[in-house]
Known about the structure:
- The chain is of the alpha/beta class.
- The protein contains three helices and three strands.
- It has helices at 13-25, 39-45, 60-63, and strands spanning 4-9, 29-36, 52-55.
- It has a three-stranded parallel sheet with strand order 1-2-3, with helices on one face.
- α1 (13-25) links the parallel β1 and β2 (29-36).
- The longest helix is centred in the N-terminal third of the chain and has 13 residues, at 13-25.
- It is globular, with a radius of gyration of 11 Å.
Amino acid sequence: MRTVRIGVVGAGNMGADHVHTLHRWVSGAEVTHVADIDGERAAAVATVPGARSTSASTSPADTAS
């Protein structure tokens, strides 16, 4: 099976639910990034293994390794 890497924009209630649902229930899905205008909120939601977070003031491309 192929892994699909997913980024979630928005770390409110719905974004957090999407992150946790994808991680727990969707086979082959890997949440790799969570972005939100509130960087602390994004970090709090990006608790699944392998996920990173950024605030709206940075781009995911700026944090790529």
